[in-house]
Amino acid sequence: MSCGPLYLGIDVGTQSLTAILIEAPPPDGEGKDRASRVAARATVHYDSELPAYGTVSGQLPNDDPAIGRVPPCMWIEALDLALERLGGDLCGKVCGLSVSGQQHGSVYLRAGSDRALRSLTADRNLAEQIEPLLARSEAPIWTDSSTGRECEEIRRALGGAAATAELTGSNTFERFTGPQIRRFARTRPDEWTDTAHVCLVSSFVTSVLAGRLTAIDHGDGSGMNLLDIRRREWSPAAMAATATELERRLLPSQPPWTVVGAIAPCFVSRYGFPPDTRVSIGSGDNPCSLVGVGVREPGEAVLSLGTSDTCFCLMPDIAVDPDANGHVFIAPSGHPMSLICFRNGSLAREAVRDRHGLDWQGFEDALRSTPPGNDGMMMIPWFEPEIVPRVASPGVVRLGGLEDAPEQAAANCRAVVEGQFLSMRLNSEWMATRPSRILATGGGAHNREMLQIAADVMGCPVEGHEATDGAALGAALRATGRRPYPLPPAGGPGPAAAPRPQAAAVYDRLLARYAEAQRRALGP
Ligand code: XUL
Q: What domains appear along the chain, each with residue ranges and CATH number?
């Protein structure tokens, strides 16, 4: 199919790298609200397609389950392979590109890296040219949870959990980059001394594509416990609490719409990219996904109903969770965005479904057959330890006559879903932004009855969306350099639900009861 100028989005994910080419509608006039079109996509799965690196689920196997690391050259080899698959005809039409990277992972480079990146050549294997630049052969990624001690130390130095969240947008979390850096500097002082630059996954891959060291954007930077979320610059206090001489090693932080330069000449010779292909600064996969699903206005939210349930919301102003369980990142539009993750998502729904011998259709029928408010029966759905609110050991609470009994199968199905959305509403009150529209993605977004409960509890319309490749699409939309970003390609029509006034009033009343039950369950 013939096409106009193309934009390339590359998502360096946990298990695979995806490259997507989109054609965007014309920037002005009628094209403004038209969706983009996907022209081509290529995905490289690390485990099966780059077996020499020996990864399992995208990371190096380790006897210690708390360690999650990746050889960074694997991402570069995956990039090379994905571009090869897109081919010269399409790459030759690209006018802008940008990278989305799994958030929090860090790459450590030696002095002289900038010079070496400026002289990358198309004649030699790309990963082989990058390998000598690494001061650390492995990059810790977001799955790493070995930094409990460092989290504690940084949090204490910054004045506690609430103060850390107030400054950096989040409490310290094991997977965040600051704690990773601190652990590296403490346990491998020689390699730390050898480190001249600390990059994130997104800025590392962008640096290779741009053939120069590139900055970290405010969006990915807000997943580090290092960015002052209000001033949007590295916090001297957080850097000092993290590692010695970090300031000179961190590349600058810049707004998410920064253009870092033109593509490196080696990609021009190797894949036929036009020499003036514009490279936009990289960003994190969560900020990119927001754009990739089509969120553009503050108040719009994405609800990802997967193994865990994650809610991102674009906020008009910065608000920080006083309980320090949620996160604030900077979205590609520059607005703050919240991210809260409930561990008891599909896992909890599945536990109820399986307990009562149902399939998903049976679960949905059970929701349809029971009334909003469940005749006073209620559940706090902590089948697993919970992230929001923080609960260390599982403990499901049933109230109002609800019992774990076979004859109450339908009531239990409704109770788990109502409990999940009441918890989401209660524990997102700190955002001070009631969502105006929710785009639901993930497996649960196919369940219309569940979306109806979400709409009634949250008091706003909820639309189901197919959102495969959201992060890569978001990167491609960012690469257009336009704001507001063009709309992503329209997915197939999914179920949708509008709030019903009577049901919404029931949940408005139930919220106080849920809050009281949660307070009791959390204890003193
Ligand atoms: C978010 C998080 C993951 C990673 C990988 O804080 O840790 O979503 O971004 O996708």
A: 6-287 (3.30.420.40), 294-466+493-524 (3.30.420.40)
